[in-house]
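Notes from hallway chat w/ T.B., transcribed later so I don't forget. T.B. wanted the structure written out for a chain they're using in a teaching module, and asked if we could keep both sequence and structure tokens in one place. Agreed to drop them here.
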Amino acid sequence: MSLVLDPATQDLLFREARTANTFTDEPVTEKQIQAIYDLVKFGPTAFNQTPLRVVLVRSPEARERLVQHMGDGNKAKTSTAPLVAIFAADNEFHEELPELFPAFPGVKDAVFSERLVREQNAGMNAALQAAYFIVGIRAAGLAAGPMTGFDHAGVQKEFLDGDHTPLMIVNIGKPGDDAWFARSPRLPYDEVVTTV
């Protein structure tokens, strides 16, 4: 069976997708980010959880505060990207479930009353939403540079609170000169997929 997406779209969203390391200075607008969210918000999650929270770092002062928490190899590109986003998991996402998952009215208390359960689910489902968001960035004709090399506790203290766990920092914009490293290898199908 062939894929439904045309080959150019497959390339845009997946085959040519790589972490961008340089960007042009063309701004990323609020309207672009809104359009991306309005597309990717429909991606499925468990119990229709929506734990992803996105903090857009736009002001020079906030950018400077964020860069102080980035790993050395990520500071320069975070300083110069047109837009930087902090992707975080809201560990109190369950408060919204009565509205978001009306098929199971008691899910908030029946499944998510314990903090550890919420943290595990928030991390997994926010990461899934973050992946949708990154694909959406590519669908908008932009490039993404997701990074986990930063001081997580420092970013949480500086930009979030105890109920929000930072997952990744994502640089966003039009790719600049020499934006891509060479394509790294991938595991073959039979090393990843097993039939039992």
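Follow-up for T.B.: The mean pLDDT is 96. Might be a good example for the class.
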